[in-house]
Amino acid sequence: MQLSGSNVTLIKRDKWGVTTSMIDLEAGAKFVDKNPAVVAIAEHGLNTLQAMRIAHYSVRYSVSPMTAGGPCASEAQSMINAGYAAIMACSGGTSLGCLLATNDYNKAVEAYNACINKMYPGTT
User: Fold this and answer.
1) pLDDT for 3-39, tens place per residue?
2) 57 DSSP assignment
3) What is the pLDDT of residue 104?
4) Are 108 and 79 in contact (CB under 8 A)?
5) In the beta sheet, which residues pair with residue 10?
6) Quick count: other Cβ atoms within 10 Å of Cβ 104?
7) What is the dihedral of CA 115, 98, 2, 82, to 10 degrees?
8) Phi/psi of residue 70, each to 5°?
9) Which ranges of 1-95 does DSSP label H, i.e. alpha helix?
10) Strands 2-4 and 7-14: what pairing?
């Protein structure tokens, strides 16, 4: 999964070959704004799946021990968790769930970058 501007490129490799698809986050945001009821249903489903996943599989990645006590550790962990959720949601291809998870990841990256810029101005 690659995030570039308002586009997400999904590259899925399996034993049969490679599938590439793209999500336009800007177009997705417009869809989300126009369809709040559909989004609410999708978010409820994603939250249920996320709770089930966490109950059976703990988060596999965490902030490195070197930065765990750092000033932006919670933002870094949120970014890792959102990235993991986006990869899981997008592993089947483009979908509303993938769009929402990718949007959450994008927000987490922005929050992390804002924290880093606050602590170390001009670094991101």
Assistant:
1) 777 788 888 787 888 888 888 878 888 888 888 888 8
2) S
3) 86
4) yes
5) 21
6) 19
7) 30
8) -70, 170
9) 25-34, 36-56, 73-90
10) antiparallel
CA 95 vs. chain centroid, Å, equals 13
Cβ–Cβ < 8 Å for 87, 57: no
Answer with the residue of higher pLDDT: 81 or 5: 81
**Rounded to 5°, angle at Cα 104 from 99 and 107:** 125
Residue 97 CA to residue 121 CA, distance in Å, equals 34
Q: What is the pTM of this model?
A: 0.66
What are the contacts of 50-56 at 24+ separation with CB within 8 A?
50/85, 53/88
First-to-last C-alpha distance (Å) of the chain = 21
102 close to 86: Cβ distance less than 8 angstroms: yes
Cα 2 to Cα 19: distance, rounded to the nearest angstrom: 14
Q: Which residue has 């924290």 as its token pair?
A: 115
Rounded to the nearest 5°, which phi and psi values hold at 3? -110, 125
Residue with tokens 């001009």: 122
How far does Cα 118 stand from its chain's mean position? Answer: 23
